[in-house]
Design goal:
CATH class: Alpha Beta
CATH topology: Thiol Ester Dehydrase, Chain A
Shape: globular
Strand content: 35-45%
Number of domains: 1
Strand order of the largest sheet: 1-2-4-5-6-3
Distance between the termini: 33 Å
Number of helices: 4
Helix content: 10-25%
Largest sheet: 6 strands, antiparallel
Oligomer: single chain
């Protein structure tokens, strides 16, 4: 998947501006680069690439800045990608003036990720979206479709 990072900016979207957009419009702005990605995306080198109602794809190419002491990619990268894709998938279902935040998430790391893994894709999909709580699942795969990590989240939905 091509990254749009060259035309992306980083920062936060003011709350009053976010209130004017549906969740889908907000996440579309992240994908298109008309809204800034959060600064952790710059720090870790990931991008928000795709969005449809209830589904978001985030990508990254692991490198030597992501390594843990044993020489594999730190699990925190996978955790951040999963938290982002799952939370944004829920956000993509929200109406104007409504926000969400992660209450809890769980991940399982099933294959090592290394810089040689190449581009990885984290796909988040909403499982259930209620009035106050949303749940989603996420999967990280490599370019051959192999599962590297997966997780679930529970998010609180509230008026912003």
């Amino acid at each position: 998947m091509p990254s749009h990072a060259a035309r992306k900016t980083y920062g936060t979207v003011p709350a009053d501006r976010r209130k004017e957009m549906s969740g889908l419009e907000f996440v579309q702005g992240l994908v298109e680069g008309t809204l800034p990605l959060n600064t952790i995306a710059r720090t870790l080198g990931y991008d928000v690439n795709e969005v449809t109602n209830g589904r978001v794809v985030v990508t990254a190419t692991p490198n030597d800045t992501h390594l843990n002491p044993s020489g594999t990619v730190h699990g925190g990268l996978a955790a951040t990608l999963l938290d982002s894709c799952m939370g944004l998938a829920i956000w993509s279902t929200l109406e104007k003036g409504v926000s969400q935040t992660t209450l809890e998430f769980k991940i399982s790391l099933v294959r090592p990720i290394t810089p040689e893994t190449g581009l990885i894709k984290a796909e988040g999909v909403v499982l259930n979206r209620g009035r106050r709580v949303g749940t989603a699942e996420g999967r990280i795969t490599d370019d051959r479709g192999r599962l590297l990590a997966h997780g679930t989240t529970t998010c609180l939905i509230f008026e912003s």
